[in-house]
Amino acid sequence: MDFSSDTSAPAHPRVMEALARVNAGHQSSYGNDAVTAELRGLLARTLEIEDFDFWLCASGTASNALALSCFCPPTGAILCHAEAHIARDERGAPEFFSGGGKLQLLGGDGAQIEETELRDALARIDHGFVHETPAHVLSLTNLTESGTAYPAARIAHYAALAKEAGLTVHLDGARIANALVSMGASLADMSWRAGTDVLCLGLTKTGAMGCEIIVLFGEARTKFNELKARAKRSGHMPPKMRYLAAQAIALLTDGLWLDLARNANQRAQEVANLLCRRPGTELVHPVHGNEVFVRLDDETAGRLRDAGAVFYTWLDGSSRLVTSWQTGADTIDQLASVLD
After folding, report:
1. Which cofactors go with this protein (predicted)?
2. Parallel, antiparallel, or unpaired for β 77-81 and 135-141?
3. For the chain, which has fewer Cβ within 10 Å, the N-terminal or C-terminal residue?
């Protein structure tokens, strides 16, 4: 019963099979290979658009930091939620990669930015006032760090507000497959159709060994050469990119990534239902994906840990339990027997 993180799960077998298939012969380096070219076509079908550029990274932190550094200068700021992964969990990587860009933290329930806070922050932008740091980017996260999902319509609304103020819109999609399944949206609806300029499409938490895709849409494509230069300078230009591309192909083909996210989401709902049958257990946030945040009484928490369940205590004192593509019915049955 490992509910520590979806990154604790192994890579999906189809990912490993894909890696074995491409592990033969010679291919050109740095993304100029046939496998990465094949991925472009698959991405175009998945995104329902041809007007994009993309880059592959092995970690979400690298993809977020690289993407943001192309749109936030050292003298600028990035608007994000105070609980966003780029603020809480990336050890200053966006600031480091941008050469000093600042994160401007906003509040809101469920780690979703509250609209009045966003409007206030946008209204304060003054590029002519040298004593404050003007925002250049709005960064949203889906799923959020509290496991909640922005609907596509809300992303579109916030993106429109940000663009009216001259900002670029970045979407951290480390768990975007879970958000898509939960909200019943397409990737197009939640990204470029909603006004997103740069998407970090996460596959590692969904079943990859390590694969994140930075996707630039529309006018943001003018930054593609800069993105590649920054990737090279920071050590994130994989010489054998075909191995990253193969992982993405395995997961995106026939919608496997969404099927895996669907399983993880379903298991999370089952975990939440079981836990909430216990007196004194309280859901802290709605379960929109594969993360469950609950307040457990000491007896329940102790019983779970004594049975070998692995989960984390979160910043607010709640417990976070995360399911993955591999969480099966047997794990749910085991959890039920412990809680009975």
Report:
1. pyridoxal 5'-phosphate
2. parallel
3. C
